[in-house]
Amino acid sequence: RNSANMKRRPNNKSGYKGISWHKHTQKWRARIKINNREISLGLFDDPESAARAYDTAALVLHGDFAKTNF
User: Fold this and answer.
1) Which residues of the chain have pLDDT under 70?
2) pTM score, two decimals?
3) Burial of 28 (0-12, 13-18, 19+ CB in 10 A)
4) In which order are the strands placed within the sheet that holds 37-44?
């Protein structure tokens, strides 16, 4: 299954694709997958900043097929 161009999952709590709450650090975590390998994009104070980091990585890694948050 090609996850590069999937939309945000319906059970997503952050409201953004590739963003989740990291309970241990109390920060928002951005992650993206490429070739079935997960890449951590970092921890952020707010979900919007994490989503922008995801979008940047998605455009670089997936090009025209990227599904971005903004």
Assistant:
1) 1-9
2) 0.84
3) buried
4) 19-22, 27-34, 37-44
